[in-house]
Amino acid sequence: MERLIFCAPILGICALLFAFYLTKKVGRQDAGTDRMKEIAAFIHEGARAFLTAEYKILIVFVAVLFILIGVGIGNWVTAVCFLVGALFSTVAGYIGMNVATKANVRTAAAAKDSGMNKALSIAFSGGAVMGMAVVGFGLFGAGVIYALTKNPDVLSGFSLGASSIALFARVGGGIYTKAADVGADLVGKVEAGIPEDDPRNPAVIADNVGDNVGDVAGMGADLFESYVGSLVSAITLGVVYAKESGAIFPLVIAALGVLASVIGCFFVKGDENSSPHKALKYGSYSAAIVVMIGSLILSKVFFNGFKEAIAIIFGLIVGLLIGVITEVYTSGDYGFVKKIAQQSETGPATTVISGIAVGMQSTAVPIILIAIGIIGAYSFSGLYGIALAAVGMLSTTGITVAVDAYGPIADNAGGIAEMSGLPSEVRNITDKLDAVGNTTAAMGKGFAIGSAALTALALFVSYAQAVGLFESGINLLDYKVIVGMFVGGMLPFLFSAFTMDSVSKAAYKMIEEVRRQFKTIPGILEGKGKPDYTSCVAISTQAALKEMLLPGVMAVLAPLFIGVVLGPAALGGLLGGALVTGVMLAIFMSNSGGAWDNAKKYIEDGNHGGKGSEAHRASVVGDTVGDPFKDTSGPSINILIKLMTIVSLVFAPLFLSIGGLF
Amino acid sequence: MERLIFCAPILGICALLFAFYLTKKVGRQDAGTDRMKEIAAFIHEGARAFLTAEYKILIVFVAVLFILIGVGIGNWVTAVCFLVGALFSTVAGYIGMNVATKANVRTAAAAKDSGMNKALSIAFSGGAVMGMAVVGFGLFGAGVIYALTKNPDVLSGFSLGASSIALFARVGGGIYTKAADVGADLVGKVEAGIPEDDPRNPAVIADNVGDNVGDVAGMGADLFESYVGSLVSAITLGVVYAKESGAIFPLVIAALGVLASVIGCFFVKGDENSSPHKALKYGSYSAAIVVMIGSLILSKVFFNGFKEAIAIIFGLIVGLLIGVITEVYTSGDYGFVKKIAQQSETGPATTVISGIAVGMQSTAVPIILIAIGIIGAYSFSGLYGIALAAVGMLSTTGITVAVDAYGPIADNAGGIAEMSGLPSEVRNITDKLDAVGNTTAAMGKGFAIGSAALTALALFVSYAQAVGLFESGINLLDYKVIVGMFVGGMLPFLFSAFTMDSVSKAAYKMIEEVRRQFKTIPGILEGKGKPDYTSCVAISTQAALKEMLLPGVMAVLAPLFIGVVLGPAALGGLLGGALVTGVMLAIFMSNSGGAWDNAKKYIEDGNHGGKGSEAHRASVVGDTVGDPFKDTSGPSINILIKLMTIVSLVFAPLFLSIGGLF
């Protein structure tokens, strides 16, 4: 039975091979007209430039942390695993984004020449490369490291490596994409009155690059972190639960999940008569069913019973339901978004208020679902069950990320179609694909938050075990724990404030640059002068990289500071407090943002006066407020809560040796 | 030494006598012209009508809860104390609001005939009646009940009575005032283009009534609850700490605080050459100094040392510093508000984003201050010290409420001056008084949140003691505690969503009514037709009362449900989670709202284009979003976290006997 551990690296490699196959498949497709190729090259280059610049900063950050780990806890194996985790996350992100920036133009070309089905297939294949790279590198890395060392502590280093990259990818990507988006919209659409994705807008390329660095690379790194984190916590707690089998079981489940995701990918088939949304859902659900059945069998093999499988199934179902409920709160087909659209009739203030109210209200059901998941998983398999639920939820990450990354590719395809002046039928197809992408993006965000919550919780329990608080507990009546909880609860608010401010500052610079180009480049608005795309790309790149440092450093230093000064119990309080407020804020901000976005689209579809009406203007304000909510601050909080927990876990030996200065 | 307990009821009565004296003093002043008297009568009647209608609903609610307590825990003495607490809070609120609606017109008259000093004195005297009524009834009630029963459990019933009234006063008052305000502004100012407080606006009386029911009666009930709650928790923990002396000490400190507040009131003297702000600060600081010195002496007498006094001083200083820091984040004299004003230049979206960022950022320093306060208080006197810090912070409630209630009186005075067409010099004086009121209101809100946090925390510890978790602790690794924490952390978000929605709905009705009157009453906009004020007052009243029920019932039922179904430990988690997210949300929403308000005023003072500019229009959107933030949802959260904790404390015997069904 213990031999089954080799499933993990083997299926990891299978996933990577499948990613390689898909990459080649996408690459073989026609890339369209010269104009399309030219625009795609701009986007591709912009994205690469950002990643390269980001990596340069990351090398310094990673080197510092490497030494901190080695010196701080005296275990250089952990430090090396940290490097490997950082490297794997980086490579996965690079591969995924590289393909995404090739799939976009090919999706547009397929929409032009072959219709919806082919276009859907290419966009989804592009996304699936990211998905397979995430699970491939994650599973391979975790499997090999555990097989070699049999030491879960060392594995936490791998997880921290993944988290560090995720932080910068999500925060930097989030700032990048919204600075470009807000800048392009406020000057281009509002001031100059040119449509979205118009090639005359100098920020338009940066905007399209942003979709890739934020929604593809950032999201991928986020889920890579969750994926690895859930495995690490399940392995840590598995050793306590059932020694070797308890540690290997989650790895085998993850391997099963990879298989299920690959199978699910083959279920995503376009059908001219039905919506692409259905095809994507179909793929996800079939993967989930495969995992459910397989986990029952594996649970019988490993533990001679079904209790552990039930914990996994609880996690899986909660994850799917959170996706569904997110759709209810953020899709124009349901009452909440319609209410916001109606409130737009009385102006921007009521639009903003009702959007905030919807977002806040939307925290309730996901939290109750998570609570039921925790109760269910615990009842069947104790604290190990909570970690297994996280593994279950994340087992189908391969296809989840594929569906998620499909969105920005379709979005980009639309942009390229518009910029290359393709006929409106093509744009119609890409618009349909993009609309589905908006829904899946909101669902993906809900899933990312839910899985981050469960992962962070499982890691939190692992942390308690690592600092020896498993028996004595973390007592909420201990004043240090209370202080930790207050400070921890405050951090997501401060972090969100920082990231929102960063978007404001970066967008401001972008606005100035676009205005400058409109003024100084002759004939630019008549389509005769050539806009300088690269200067806008450079502004977004530099601003994102500069602004991501403060929140990033805060996320690493805050737990270290509290752990060293007030001790491990206070740090436990901090992690608990951050987890609770972080999850609420993330759900609130993501869903408010998604709901505003779709309220605007609902009005643009001809309701409440349609485009150009007062209500539409108000809804644009809501959408602009929602941009940093849903694409920068909200998703970044996922990383914050996971990263702080994993930092605490890795540095546990340090806190134990110092034990609180105060 | 135990005899000193009689200080409590005696000084309680002194406070009430002082309130009576001030009431007479205010009543003796000239009420101005016939037109002024007529308008004042409208406001007075509107406020009374609201309170009467509210009390009718409250009687039902109180009766149900009375039976629930008696039957649920089988202690009818506690149930009777609950009735007394509810009655005292009601009477205090009624007295305070009654005087406030007399002081407003007399302040305007004094500004007309005698100048700033006299006007300040009357407005402050009016506010001081509310302050003295709060501490008088609170101290008298707590002192007498404890002297008679010597049973802290019974006393928690008194505290629950106070909390129940506070809930409805704060939530109902908050909905009332913002529905009227938003309704009056959106139709009157924006659509019809008539100035603020214009008598042609049918909602103008409701708007002025709202200031009284929300900012006087609601705020008073909020602090009455904190005041009583801090005493109850200190008495409960005092018995554990040092038997009888530990229980009596906080009562004597509160008595000292009443004395200090009365002394502080005499320090509030207008001076034509200096700002009224200074006079009010002077009064508050002198009261604080009296308590500091007195507590050192009393601590020596009671415990033969200074440790307990230091805990009190920690609380007092933290309370003052939170006020100061709130001013920094919300006053136009500092950079944060100026930044929001600057962002208004790029439209309402950036105004809203930067205001939210400022509010979120503003959580950091108060939380660190509270953390330092907890560490300091605990280090010197253990958990009892935390309760003492809350008592210390609230010891000067008499003058704090006086300063707070001064604001809406000055605001009303300005409204009356405007509506009666008094000359602009008069309006200048009331504007100055009002501007000071805005600052003190923001500081008062910060203080109300800080004291609510500390009180809820102290009550939380008392709860743990009551359910026998003092020794075993409330373990953050217990899955039930985790579930409780998630659910608890979600409740403030849900509660805020409900209250914001309520404001939207109520405001919508108000908007429709004002529009109807403008359309159907001939000559109304030329000042010839008479607007129907009472229908607007009725709309606000009915909407507020209807809308306050759902959040109110939720606040009572949520802890009962979790306590009964998941048991006392899970309920402990719920209270912890709600406390953490509740405090953050309350600070965030109050300060965002305050900052937007003053950013608008800053622009109106001639910056960024002044009144009528694009920036001004954007800042009005921010201010409107901030209205329910700062005056409805934010302050209502204070009540939520305190009420849920006190419900848990009172029903502790029930949870113990059932112990969790699950």
Automatic annotation (TrEMBL), chains A, B:
Its EC number is 7.2.3.1. Its cofactor is Mg(2+). The chain crosses the membrane at residues 6-23, 57-76, 82-101, 122-148, 154-171, 248-270, 282-303, 309-330, 351-377, 383-403, 447-469, 481-500, 548-567, 573-591, 639-661. It is a multi-pass membrane protein. It is found in: Cell membrane; Endomembrane system. Its main location: membrane. Keywords: Cell membrane, Hydrolase, Ion transport, Magnesium, Membrane, Potassium, Sodium, Sodium transport, Translocase, Transmembrane, Transmembrane helix, Transport. InterPro entries: PPase-energised_H-pump. Requires K(+) for maximal activity. The record marks 441 as: Determinant of potassium dependence. It comes from the Bacteria. It catalyses: Na(+)(in) + diphosphate + H2O = Na(+)(out) + 2 phosphate + H(+). GO terms for molecular function: inorganic diphosphate phosphatase activity. The keyword Hydrolase applies. Sodium pump that utilizes the energy of pyrophosphate hydrolysis as the driving force for Na(+) movement across the membrane. PANTHER family: K(+)-INSENSITIVE PYROPHOSPHATE-ENERGIZED PROTON PUMP. HAMAP family: PPase_energized_pump. Homodimer. Belongs to the H(+)-translocating pyrophosphatase (TC 3.A.10) family. K(+)-stimulated subfamily. This is Putative K(+)-stimulated pyrophosphate-energized sodium pump. It comes from Anaerobutyricum soehngenii.
